Amino acid sequence: MATILEKAQTLISANLHSILDKALKANSLAVLDEYIRQAQDNLDDLEDAAATVGGQVKTLKRKAEESEKKAQKLDRDIDMLLQRGKEDLAIAAQRRLNSVQELAKEYGEQWERQQKEYQTLLDARLKLEAKLTEIRQEREQLQALLELAKAKEVTTKTLQSLDDLAGIGDADISRIADGIRARLDKASAHAEIRASRLDEEMDRLLETDEVQIQLEARKRRLGMGRASDVPPEEASESAAEGQ
């Protein structure tokens, strides 16, 4: 029991700033994760120990109360035996009473000790649980800081790489840029050609439609339209003239 409490007290008294500082220096959460693992294990042990001692406390209290009731009954019996003149039985009952009272006293003392032990375990559990919650919260914040630090390291390395690339020479950089621009210009030219072709095609279609409309109008004026194109009045007059 003492070992469990000692381990718990060690974890409870651990300096949070020191733990965080070690984690930051190591650039790793392993220090915090190890603390959390140990704290959780000890918390489980404390809960089990507290349950065990709590059960013993209940048992001792019950036995102390039972012994007290027996002592009270024996005390009444002794008075009754003396009143009836049964001194021998009263002596035996007195001896039994002394034994029960001694046992009740022992149970009471044990109950008090175990009750204090039980309360100590409960207090240690609450403190360790609070410390565990705190360190878990700090872990989340530290994780965010480490991720930010890693991102900044990547950015720094990228900028360093760009600086190294710039050191290759302006001519090389310009050639690469010109090549990219040339590809973009070529793609733009292709797009313009396709657009021009589309415009020409549309113009031809529109021009053809206009010519066709003009020819149809001329045919109607010359009476060359199809029968289905001749108005009903003109068709009736033509039929009458034929008769």
Give a verbal description of the structure.
The protein folds into 2 domains: 166 residues, no CATH class; 40 residues. Helix content is 90%, strand content 0%. Helix 1 packs across helix 3 and helix 2 runs parallel beside helix 4. It is elongated. The protein is built from 6 helices and no strands. It is an all-alpha fold and 243 residues long.
How would you briefly describe this protein structure?
This protein has 243 residues and is mostly helical.
Give the key terms.
2 domains, mainly alpha, elongated, 243 residues, disordered C terminus
Q: What portion of residues belong to β-strands?
A: under 5%
User: How many discrete structural domains?
Assistant: 2
The pLDDT mean sits at 77
Provide the helix percentage: over 70%
Parts with pLDDT < 50 across at least 5 consecutive residues: 235-243
Query: What structural category arises from helix and sheet content?
Result: mainly alpha
Shape: elongated
Fold topology:
Elements: H1 2-12, H2 16-26, H3 30-83, H4 87-166, H5 170-221, H6 232-242
